[in-house]
Write a structure and sequence with these properties.
Length: 599
């Protein structure tokens, strides 16, 4: 039999023959002798499934085209996509993608999905073979170490056909997470069975909807530990489990993928835009993401996104626009790159500590008395936002939104009208050439002077922020800090907080309560995020134009490019750099030009 199989192989034009056309006993003998190797025939119309990785050991080369293509194939694939569609999406020759798909199947990383009819026939044939072997006939199956060929053709998870909704373009939901969360899940002591899903998320780039049930089952065993130093890792896993289960419950019938943002960004902007447009109808980011370099910006892709649409939304401009819109916030100074300070302004010098945010989004805190060295070192590399801060846990709060109807107060309508009528909380053109006292910064500060006045609680301050910025159509949380006995907004995050279990549960409960992920609510969700981005764009553009006029430049070049790429390299790539130093004194924005503080 082995000789007959070898003769048939030698007679083949390209040395390839379908295994089913050869004597089974001969193929087994030749394979055991190492005289033949198995390949998986993949056709352009085939569909692939990528199950959780088991026993996978990372050994990336980094400069191999096949390795790069395999990783792109993994993160782009879903079980409704044909290989020819993946080749078009990745802008790769079909032959090359077929080769990569065949290799992935041969290595056991992927499986070909059998049509329902073929899967049923294969099941019947396997049952007949098992009966024959039980009666004493036939050959024993190949060992797992020899080949996994019988598993190359896998029936769809759960059996049966893919539903029309699953197969429709844009039906899926992407829950976007960063590499830190993926690494936290890989701790072996979180729960039995969870590590393989963590490795899949890190290496494949996502936990697909078809594996979500198994992931949730493994994550259900995670319980909070008594050791405080390990609490962060367990909270990440628990929050992710809550978020995934809630999103799926809020959108019944829509597949949910948990996707690592770094894998998406490695695709490049054009491939990413095509992938989002083809496969996803909604994106939800964890908030906040680890860094701007891992943030996926979706403006221009047509996909509604509860998260950052463009780099401006995660730049220091966004914080200043927030403070100008509501007329409250910690005293802050935005300094240009190259500025040198010899002393802090009075509002910052009297604070317990200062929060330093570079243009790339990296944050750190320092005692106000010793912060000058750190500030001046950062200013050598990028602009820096310096803010009054209190690092004590009792001085920080996070309040989720959307709010309950009872939390929306009629007396805030005048605040909202005043802020909107002032040009979106940031136009400084009306205040003269220097931008020091006019425009919406001062106007909205006057209109919203009660935001932090009178010792309002954190919830009341957050309610005013959300209603002023018209964020009831989306979800996230407001970060607040208590300074001089008053709560003031520090930052605003759209998306799901996966660092705090209680906060995550609050946001997920609000999503369910208000039906924010229903198809009918998609326009409101998109409009809320676009409205906030518009405010930031107006604010940044207005202050950049003011700086141009102050410097005697009257050209008409746009100060800001709103159509940001999905993979801009950090916030600075899509937001204008500050041309003058700005200060927020707790009520309004102005130019910071006090010479006594400069070197």
């Amino acid at each position: 039999a082995a000789r007959d199989a070898l003769v048939a192989l030698s007679a083949a034009r390209d040395g390839r023959v379908l295994a089913a056309a050869l004597p089974e006993e001969g193929v087994r003998e030749l394979y055991a002798s190492g005289l033949v190797r198995l390949e998986v025939a993949v056709e352009a119309s085939d569909k692939l499934a990528v199950p959780p990785l088991v026993g996978f050991v990372m050994n990336r080369v980094g400069n191999d085209w096949m390795e790069k293509l395999l990783y792109e194939l993994f993160v782009s694939n879903d079980e409704t996509a044909e290989v020819r569609q993946l080749a078009s999406l990745l802008d790769q020759p079909l032959d090359r993608v077929l080769m990569a798909a065949s290799l992935a199947c041969r290595l056991g990383f992927a499986k070909k999905k059998a049509p329902p009819e073929a899967a049923a026939a294969a099941g019947q044939a396997e049952a007949g073979g098992a009966q024959a072997r039980a009666a004493g006939g036939g050959l024993p199956p190949l060992s797992a170490s020899a080949t996994s060929a019988p598993e190359f053709m896998a029936a769809p998870e759960g059996g049966g056909e893919v539903s029309p909704r699953d197969a429709s373009s844009g039906a899926r939901i992407a829950l976007l997470v960063d590499s830190k969360l993926a690494a936290s899940l890989m701790m072996s002591n979180l729960a039995a069975g969870l590590k393989q899903h963590a490795v899949t998320l890190y290496e494949v780039g996502k936990i697909p909807a078809e594996s979500l049930d198994a992931f949730l089952e493994a994550a259900a065993e995670v319980e909070r530990p008594h050791e405080l130093e390990l609490l962060e890792y367990f909270d990440h896993a628990i929050s992710l489990r809550i978020a995934a289960a809630s999103l799926r419950a809020a959108c019944p019938g829509r597949p949910l993928d948990i996707v690592r943002t770094e894998s998406l960004r490695e695709l490049g902007s054009s491939k990413l835009a095509r992938l989002l447009g083809r496969s996803y109808g909604l994106a939800v980011s964890m908030a906040p993401l680890l860094s701007h370099s891992e943030t996926v910006f979706t403006r221009g892709t047509g996909v509604p996104h509860a998260g950052p649409l463009a780099p401006a939304m995660v730049s220091p401009w966004a914080r200043l626009a927030l403070y100008a819109a509501v007329g409250a916030g910690p005293p802050s100074v935005l300094l240009r790159r190259g500025t040198r300070l010899r002393s802090l302004p009075a509002p910052l010098a009297s604070a317990p500590s200062v929060l330093l945010t570079s243009w790339s989004g990296e944050t750190s805190s320092a005692k106000a008395g010793g912060a000058l060295v750190a500030i001046n070192e950062l200013l050598l590399l990028s602009p820096v936002l310096v803010q009054a801060y209190d690092a004590a846990p009792s001085r920080a709060a996070q309040v989720s939104f959307p709010l309950r109807a009872a939390d929306l107060h009629p007396d805030l309508l005048s605040l909202e009208v005043a802020a909107n009528g002032a040009g979106g909380g940031g136009s400084a053109e009306a205040g003269g050439g220097d931008g020091s006292g006019g425009g919406a910064g001062a106007g909205s500060g006057d209109a919203s002077g009660g935001v932090a006045a009178g010792g309002a609680g954190a919830e009341a301050v957050a309610a005013r922020v959300v209603q002023c910025l018209r964020l009831q159509g989306t979800f996230g949380f407001v970060q607040l800090v208590r300074l001089s006995g008053e709560w003031v907004p520090l930052d605003l995050h759209l998306g799901l907080p996966l660092f705090d279990v209680a906060l995550c549960e609050e946001v997920c409960s609000s999503i369910q309560r208000d039906g924010l992920l229903r198809e009918a609510a998609a326009p409101a969700l998109a409009a809320a995020a676009e409205g906030w981005l518009g405010r930031v764009i107006d604010f940044a553009g207005a202050h950049s134009r003011v700086a141009d006029r102050a410097a005697g430049r009257n050209d008409t070049r746009p100060a800001f490019c709103p159509a940001a790429s999905a993979v801009d390299d950090g916030a600075a790539a899509g937001a204008p750099l500050p041309l003058v130093d700005l200060i927020f004194d707790g009520a309004s924005i102005g130019r910071f030009d006090e010479a006594e503080h400069r070197c």
